[in-house]
Amino acid sequence: MESRNALARLADVAGGAVPFLERLRAVARHASDELKTRLLGRDFEERVEVLKTRYVDLGGDPFGFDVETARNAAVLLAFFHRMYFRTEVFGIEHVPAGRVLLIANHSGQVPIDAAIVGSSLFFDANPPRVVRAMVEKWTATLPFVSAFFNRVGQVVGVPENARRLLEMGEVLLAFPEGIRGVSKPFERRYQLEPFGLGFMRLAIETNTPIVPVAVIGAEEQYVSLGNVSWAARLLDIPVFPLIPQMFVPGAQMPLPTKYRIHFGEPMRFEGGVDDDDSVIGEKVWLVRQTISDMLRRGLSSRRSVFL
Amino acid sequence: MTDQVGPDGATSATTRRDDGAIVITGICGRLGRRLTRVLHREAKVIGLDRRPFPDRPSDIEHHEIDVRSKRTKDIFRSGNVRALVHLGVMHNPRDSAEDHHSWNVIAFQHLLEYAERYKVPKVILLSSANVYGPRPDNPVFLNEDAPLLGAGPFSEIRDLVGLDMGAQSYLWRYPQTEAVILRPSHILGTVHNAPSNYLRLKVVPTLLGFDPMMQVVHQDDVVWALRAALVPGVRGIFNIAGPPPVSLSRALTMLERSAVAVPHNMARAAVDRLFRWRVTSFPAPELDFIRYVCMVDDSRARSVLGYQPRHDLLQTLRAVDEERWL
């Protein structure tokens, strides 16, 4: 009799626990939905749909852009874009429809800035755009990396590809500072390195507007004290930045600085493609100066590196 | 099963039988036989091949000879030859380099010499987009001016590059002859070439972490392009691509093949070994074709030849599984 009572009581408790568990699960689901909306925004699926119409329904992308892979990559990027770096985007409405060349300052030792510019054009632009950046040739020889880059729309950096992408009406992102920009030491932060001239010839040839972009916040994500040139030579890589935090266990992630991305008004250039370097150089100087001004203004209005 | 192929606007110029004969080398290959079926109704066709052509249409004159032999010259001397279509490029990785060289380069030199001496107005070489070579730094679409770098890692296609260059120099040296070089991407169908054989495998090996975009073209679209190239007035180099490019993984999904991904360095060593043991007929350097991109821009063929692929991607891929008695 006793034991039956005990069992009955246990059953009562269990019976009471089931709705409790149900509620717990509902709360968890609600929280995860909440997180998902906060992370990806309410219109995430619609944004993916826009890309599907553009890249799948119209016969596919010859470079191998795959919407499903890009969608998964966007979910990961959203975490960095919205939560880790809490990117603030200014003037994205300046990015015109159709082909455009984004020219940005390059910084941060690891080219996370490219990914964040890319995610701001996917998450914050209307309609969403896919940023196509040009990657180093040797990445095409690496397993997984090459396939992944193809599928998220990154292409091997040869001039023919750039021209073709612009003819397709894509957004092309270029960093004319190149590797010198991304690997500059902390003491030279936000000082632009000399710009290459290739992007200007490309813009003139294809009659493409240039949108200057200033990325603020990437310089502080990794503090580099300088380049260890003998290590770079030894490993046969372009630079070997000395980053103290890399030697602290568990601190390999970039510092959670706040990213601020400023898009400037589109600039149009005319002239001959084969003009002398000095003529092209003046136009490039204009773009570089614009970005430098945008950086200066952005830095003076920033209250904190992390907030 | 044979589709209607042939350039629609070209009929009046090519169809009169008394215009002269079309000499086709390598006619007994599967592509050659398909081309013959299209051409023999509208022109006199002379076949040149070492192999017999048992089920040939009765109005075809077939010579079972080696192209290098003296009798080839007689054909050109006696016959009123209006075009030479050279399909007889040998690519058999098992044969020695000397055989390849002698067969491919020397035979083609002889043919060009006869064409020049007996005033053949048209010479067509079926080359391949492989002459550009798969490379990590290839632009997505190569045009006809791109350098022919395919021979670097592959000694096997050095001959083809040599042939292609020979035909090019012929193009510049003898402007009175209309020389045409066609460079189609991977031809799929009942043909016995490496890409078709590869896609016919039950379990298809791929390289782990690599998924290049590729172009495929249906064999009958290539036949169509060859016929379009016979139209008087057409000369120069033409890339031929089929339907829009597709990634290798997607192509295998469409064909419902199961794929096995192998790390690329292991695959290279393994294929090298298997090739030496004669288990596989794929030489190891050809693995680059499933690793790097090698695609062509065929806008010139589309505007000048009026070329349009008649088969969509699925039809082109499925063509490898068609019955192979043709």
Outline the structure in words.
In chain A, strands 1-7-6-2-5-3-4 form a seven-stranded mixed sheet, sandwiched between helices. The N and C termini of chain A lie far apart (66 Å). Chain A has helices at residues 2-40, 44-55, 67-84, 112-123, 145-151, 159-167, 179-182, 198-206, 229-235, 277-300; strands at residues 88-90, 100-104, 131-135, 155-156, 171-174, 210-216, 260-263. The model of chain A has no long low-confidence stretch (mean pLDDT 90). In chain A, helix 3 (67-84) packs across helix 4 (112-123). In chain A, helix 5 (145-151) links the parallel strand 3 (131-135) and strand 4. Helices cover 46% and strands 10% of the residues of chain A. Chain A is an alpha/beta fold and 307 residues long. Chain A contains ten helices and seven strands. Chain A is globular, with a radius of gyration of 24 Å. Chain B is an alpha/beta fold and 326 residues long. Chain B has a single domain (3-189, 216-243, 294-310), classed as 3-Layer(aba) Sandwich (Rossmann fold). Chain B has helices at 11-14, 30-39, 70-78, 97-117, 158-173, 194-200, 219-229, 248-254, 264-276, 299-305, 313-318, and strands spanning 21-25, 44-49, 60-64, 81-86, 122-126, 178-184, 186-188, 203-207, 213-214, 216-218, 236-240, 246-247, 258-262. In chain B, the strands form four sheets. A seven-stranded parallel sheet of chain B has the order 3-2-1-4-5-6-11, sandwiched between helices. In chain B, helix 5 links the parallel strand 5 (122-126) and strand 6. The A-B interface holds A 59-60, 62-64, 66, 137-138, 140-147, 150-151, 155-156, 158-161, 164 and B 136-141, 207-213, 244-247, 263-264, 292-293, 295.
Provide a quick synopsis of the model.
Chain A is α/β, with parallel strands linked by helices and 307 residues long. Chain A is built from 10 helices and 7 strands. In chain A, strand 3 (131-135), helix 5 and strand 4 (155-156) form a beta-alpha-beta unit.
Distance between the termini of chain A: 66 Å
Number of helices of chain B: 11
Regarding quaternary structure, what we see is: heterodimer
Strand element count of chain B: 13
Describe the strand arrangement of the main beta sheet of chain A, using strand numbers.
Answer: 1-7-6-2-5-3-4
Broad structural category of chain B = alpha/beta
Q: Determine the structural class of chain A based on helices, strands and strand pairing.
A: alpha/beta
Relative strand content of chain A: 5-15%
What is the mean pLDDT of chain A? 90
- Give the overall shape of chain A, derived from the CA principal axes: globular
Task: Give me the number of helical elements of chain A.
Answer: 10
Shape by Cα distribution of chain B: globular
Stated plainly, the CATH topology of chain B is called Rossmann fold
Order of helices and strands of chain B: HEHEEHEHEHEEHEEEHEEHEHHH
How many β-strands of chain A, per DSSP? 7
- The largest sheet of chain B has its strands arranged as 3-2-1-4-5-6-11
